[in-house]
Amino acid sequence: MNTPHICANEKEISKVVILTGDPLRAKWITENFLTGVKLVNTIRGMYGFTGKYKNKNITVMGHGMGMGSIGIYSYELFKFFNVNTIIRIGSCGSCSNEIKMGDVIIAKEAFSYSAYPYELGLKTKSKILKADKILVNYAVSIAKKNKFKYHACRIQSTDAFYNFVKNLKDQIKWGNQSKAIEMEAFALYANALKLNKKALTILTCSDEPFNHVGMSSKDRQTKFKEMVLIALELSHELL
Protein backbone atom coordinates (compact mmCIF):
# COMPACT_ATOMS: atom_id res chain seq x y z
CA MET A 1 0.00 0.00 0.00
CA ASN A 2 1.34 3.41 -0.99
CA THR A 3 -0.11 6.71 0.17
CA PRO A 4 1.03 10.24 -0.71
CA HIS A 5 3.30 10.25 2.35
CA ILE A 6 4.20 6.61 3.08
CA CYS A 7 5.63 4.16 0.55
CA ALA A 8 5.80 0.73 2.15
CA ASN A 9 4.36 -2.74 2.01
CA GLU A 10 1.66 -3.19 4.66
CA LYS A 11 3.49 -6.27 5.94
CA GLU A 12 6.56 -4.12 6.64
CA ILE A 13 4.63 -2.00 9.17
CA SER A 14 3.91 -3.41 12.63
CA LYS A 15 0.41 -3.27 14.09
CA VAL A 16 1.77 -1.11 16.90
CA VAL A 17 3.79 1.88 15.66
CA ILE A 18 5.94 4.28 17.64
CA LEU A 19 5.85 7.78 16.14
CA THR A 20 8.27 10.55 17.02
CA GLY A 21 8.48 14.07 15.67
CA ASP A 22 12.10 14.04 14.57
CA PRO A 23 12.98 11.39 11.95
CA LEU A 24 16.57 11.46 13.22
CA ARG A 25 15.25 10.47 16.64
CA ALA A 26 13.53 7.52 14.98
CA LYS A 27 16.90 6.59 13.44
CA TRP A 28 18.64 6.90 16.82
CA ILE A 29 16.04 4.65 18.47
CA THR A 30 16.47 1.91 15.88
CA GLU A 31 20.26 2.11 16.05
CA ASN A 32 20.30 1.81 19.83
CA PHE A 33 17.36 -0.45 20.70
CA LEU A 34 16.39 -2.58 17.69
CA THR A 35 18.07 -5.33 15.68
CA GLY A 36 17.65 -6.44 12.08
CA VAL A 37 16.43 -2.98 11.13
CA LYS A 38 14.91 -2.30 7.70
CA LEU A 39 14.26 1.17 6.29
CA VAL A 40 10.60 1.09 5.18
CA ASN A 41 9.87 4.75 4.35
CA THR A 42 11.93 7.67 3.03
CA ILE A 43 9.31 9.94 1.44
CA ARG A 44 9.92 13.60 2.36
CA GLY A 45 12.79 12.43 4.56
CA MET A 46 10.29 11.09 7.11
CA TYR A 47 12.18 7.93 7.87
CA GLY A 48 10.36 4.82 9.00
CA PHE A 49 12.17 1.74 10.28
CA THR A 50 11.03 -1.73 11.31
CA GLY A 51 13.24 -3.91 13.49
CA LYS A 52 13.11 -6.42 16.30
CA TYR A 53 12.79 -5.59 19.97
CA LYS A 54 12.92 -8.73 22.10
CA ASN A 55 12.13 -10.81 19.00
CA LYS A 56 9.04 -8.81 17.97
CA ASN A 57 8.93 -6.48 14.98
CA ILE A 58 8.24 -2.86 15.90
CA THR A 59 7.98 0.07 13.49
CA VAL A 60 9.44 3.44 14.54
CA MET A 61 8.77 6.43 12.30
CA GLY A 62 8.95 10.21 12.22
CA HIS A 63 5.78 12.31 12.12
CA GLY A 64 7.05 15.88 11.80
CA MET A 65 5.95 18.91 13.81
CA GLY A 66 2.43 20.07 14.56
CA MET A 67 -1.07 18.64 14.42
CA GLY A 68 -1.32 18.86 10.66
CA SER A 69 1.77 16.71 10.17
CA ILE A 70 1.04 14.02 12.77
CA GLY A 71 -2.55 14.10 11.56
CA ILE A 72 -1.44 12.96 8.12
CA TYR A 73 0.95 10.21 9.20
CA SER A 74 -1.19 8.74 11.96
CA TYR A 75 -4.33 8.80 9.79
CA GLU A 76 -2.59 7.00 6.93
CA LEU A 77 -1.08 4.40 9.26
CA PHE A 78 -4.43 3.74 10.96
CA LYS A 79 -6.57 3.81 7.82
CA PHE A 80 -4.42 2.39 5.02
CA PHE A 81 -1.82 0.25 6.80
CA ASN A 82 -4.23 -1.27 9.34
CA VAL A 83 -2.18 -0.17 12.34
CA ASN A 84 -4.09 -0.80 15.56
CA THR A 85 -2.14 1.35 18.01
CA ILE A 86 0.10 4.39 17.75
CA ILE A 87 2.34 5.53 20.60
CA ARG A 88 3.73 9.02 20.13
CA ILE A 89 6.92 9.89 21.94
CA GLY A 90 8.27 13.41 22.00
CA SER A 91 9.38 16.47 23.90
CA CYS A 92 7.30 19.01 25.76
CA GLY A 93 7.55 22.13 27.84
CA SER A 94 6.51 22.27 31.47
CA CYS A 95 3.68 24.55 32.51
CA SER A 96 3.61 23.28 36.08
CA ASN A 97 6.08 23.63 38.91
CA GLU A 98 5.65 19.88 39.48
CA ILE A 99 7.28 18.91 36.18
CA LYS A 100 11.02 19.33 35.79
CA MET A 101 13.36 18.87 32.86
CA GLY A 102 13.86 15.15 32.15
CA ASP A 103 10.58 14.03 33.75
CA VAL A 104 8.37 11.62 31.80
CA ILE A 105 4.76 12.61 31.09
CA ILE A 106 2.09 10.04 30.22
CA ALA A 107 -0.64 12.06 28.52
CA LYS A 108 -3.96 10.76 29.83
CA GLU A 109 -5.76 13.65 28.11
CA ALA A 110 -4.96 16.34 25.58
CA PHE A 111 -6.57 19.76 25.69
CA SER A 112 -6.57 22.10 22.68
CA TYR A 113 -8.33 24.99 20.99
CA SER A 114 -7.50 23.42 17.62
CA ALA A 115 -10.24 22.94 15.00
CA TYR A 116 -8.68 19.63 13.94
CA PRO A 117 -11.51 17.38 15.28
CA TYR A 118 -14.13 19.54 13.56
CA GLU A 119 -12.28 19.43 10.24
CA LEU A 120 -11.90 15.66 10.66
CA GLY A 121 -15.69 15.35 10.91
CA LEU A 122 -15.90 14.36 14.57
CA LYS A 123 -19.19 15.26 16.23
CA THR A 124 -17.61 15.96 19.60
CA LYS A 125 -17.25 19.60 20.60
CA SER A 126 -15.02 18.74 23.54
CA LYS A 127 -11.67 20.46 23.75
CA ILE A 128 -10.34 17.52 25.76
CA LEU A 129 -9.61 14.17 24.08
CA LYS A 130 -8.52 11.09 25.96
CA ALA A 131 -5.83 8.48 25.44
CA ASP A 132 -6.76 4.81 25.56
CA LYS A 133 -7.13 3.90 29.25
CA ILE A 134 -5.53 0.47 28.88
CA LEU A 135 -2.45 2.01 27.27
CA VAL A 136 -2.24 4.61 30.03
CA ASN A 137 -2.38 1.92 32.71
CA TYR A 138 0.27 -0.19 30.95
CA ALA A 139 2.57 2.79 30.59
CA VAL A 140 2.17 3.77 34.25
CA SER A 141 2.90 0.19 35.30
CA ILE A 142 6.11 0.11 33.23
CA ALA A 143 7.23 3.49 34.60
CA LYS A 144 6.62 2.34 38.18
CA LYS A 145 8.40 -0.96 37.62
CA ASN A 146 11.48 0.86 36.36
CA LYS A 147 11.27 3.57 39.04
CA PHE A 148 11.12 6.35 36.47
CA LYS A 149 9.97 9.79 37.57
CA TYR A 150 6.68 10.20 35.72
CA HIS A 151 3.45 12.19 35.72
CA ALA A 152 0.17 10.80 34.32
CA CYS A 153 -1.79 13.94 33.56
CA ARG A 154 -3.50 16.25 31.09
CA ILE A 155 -1.37 18.05 28.55
CA GLN A 156 -2.07 20.87 26.13
CA SER A 157 -1.56 20.70 22.35
CA THR A 158 -0.98 24.06 20.73
CA ASP A 159 -0.82 25.16 17.09
CA ALA A 160 1.65 27.95 17.89
CA PHE A 161 5.16 27.10 19.05
CA TYR A 162 5.86 30.80 19.58
CA ASN A 163 2.82 31.63 21.66
CA PHE A 164 2.54 34.76 23.75
CA VAL A 165 1.15 33.43 27.02
CA LYS A 166 4.18 34.15 29.18
CA ASN A 167 2.93 34.10 32.75
CA LEU A 168 2.89 30.66 34.41
CA LYS A 169 -0.46 31.25 36.10
CA ASP A 170 -2.00 32.42 32.81
CA GLN A 171 -0.45 29.46 30.95
CA ILE A 172 -2.05 26.95 33.33
CA LYS A 173 -5.41 28.72 33.15
CA TRP A 174 -5.23 29.04 29.36
CA GLY A 175 -4.33 25.34 29.10
CA ASN A 176 -7.30 24.31 31.26
CA GLN A 177 -5.08 22.88 34.01
CA SER A 178 -2.71 21.14 31.61
CA LYS A 179 0.68 20.40 33.16
CA ALA A 180 2.76 20.32 29.98
CA ILE A 181 2.52 21.69 26.48
CA GLU A 182 3.35 20.19 23.06
CA MET A 183 1.95 20.29 19.53
CA GLU A 184 0.61 16.89 18.39
CA ALA A 185 -1.25 14.66 20.88
CA PHE A 186 -4.69 16.21 20.33
CA ALA A 187 -4.68 15.38 16.61
CA LEU A 188 -3.44 11.85 17.26
CA TYR A 189 -6.22 11.25 19.78
CA ALA A 190 -8.77 12.70 17.34
CA ASN A 191 -7.67 10.29 14.60
CA ALA A 192 -7.87 7.35 17.00
CA LEU A 193 -11.39 8.39 18.01
CA LYS A 194 -12.45 8.86 14.38
CA LEU A 195 -11.11 5.49 13.24
CA ASN A 196 -11.81 3.45 16.39
CA LYS A 197 -8.11 2.86 17.07
CA LYS A 198 -5.88 3.19 20.13
CA ALA A 199 -3.36 5.94 20.88
CA LEU A 200 -1.13 7.25 23.63
CA THR A 201 1.40 10.05 23.93
CA ILE A 202 4.46 9.73 26.16
CA LEU A 203 6.66 12.79 26.54
CA THR A 204 9.88 13.97 28.13
CA CYS A 205 10.07 17.48 29.53
CA SER A 206 12.79 19.20 27.52
CA ASP A 207 12.09 22.77 28.62
CA GLU A 208 11.07 24.70 31.67
CA PRO A 209 10.10 27.95 29.92
CA PHE A 210 9.36 29.82 33.12
CA ASN A 211 12.70 28.88 34.65
CA HIS A 212 14.53 29.65 31.38
CA VAL A 213 16.20 26.23 31.11
CA GLY A 214 16.05 23.69 28.32
CA MET A 215 17.83 20.83 26.57
CA SER A 216 20.04 21.37 23.55
CA SER A 217 18.84 20.22 20.12
CA LYS A 218 21.30 17.31 20.30
CA ASP A 219 19.98 16.24 23.71
CA ARG A 220 16.43 16.30 22.34
CA GLN A 221 17.47 13.71 19.76
CA THR A 222 19.32 11.34 22.05
CA LYS A 223 18.57 11.72 25.78
CA PHE A 224 15.03 10.44 26.04
CA LYS A 225 15.89 6.88 27.00
CA GLU A 226 13.26 6.38 29.72
CA MET A 227 10.41 7.51 27.45
CA VAL A 228 11.70 5.27 24.65
CA LEU A 229 11.93 2.24 26.92
CA ILE A 230 8.34 2.71 28.12
CA ALA A 231 7.13 2.91 24.52
CA LEU A 232 9.13 -0.16 23.44
CA GLU A 233 8.05 -2.26 26.40
CA LEU A 234 4.44 -1.21 25.89
CA SER A 235 4.62 -2.03 22.17
CA HIS A 236 6.16 -5.41 22.91
CA GLU A 237 3.36 -6.16 25.39
CA LEU A 238 0.68 -5.33 22.81
CA LEU A 239 2.15 -7.26 19.86
Explain what you see.
This protein is of the alpha/beta class and 239 residues long. The chain is 34% helix and 29% strand. A five-stranded mixed β-barrel has the order 5-9-8-6-10, surrounded by four helices. A hairpin with a 6-residue loop joins strand 2 (35-41) and strand 3. Helix 2 (67-80) packs parallel to helix 6 (185-195) and helix 4 (133-145) crosses helix 8. The longest helix is centred in the first third of the chain and has 14 residues, at 67-80. The radius of gyration is 17 Å and the shape is globular. The two termini are 21 Å apart.
Which properties best describe this structure?
34% helix; 239 residues; globular; alpha/beta; single chain; five-stranded mixed beta barrel
The H-and-E topology, N to C, reads as EHEEEHEEHEHEHEHEEHH
Average pLDDT for all residues = 91
What is the count of β-strands? 11
Write down the overall geometry. Answer: globular
Low-confidence stretches: none
Strand order of the largest sheet: 5-9-8-6-10
Our estimate of the beta-strand percent is: 25-35%
Number of helices in the DSSP assignment: 8
Sheet with the most strands?
5 strands, mixed, barrel
Which secondary-structure class do the elements indicate?
Answer: alpha/beta
Proportion of helical residues: 25-40%
How many angstroms separate the termini? 21 Å
Radius of gyration (CA) equals: 17 Å
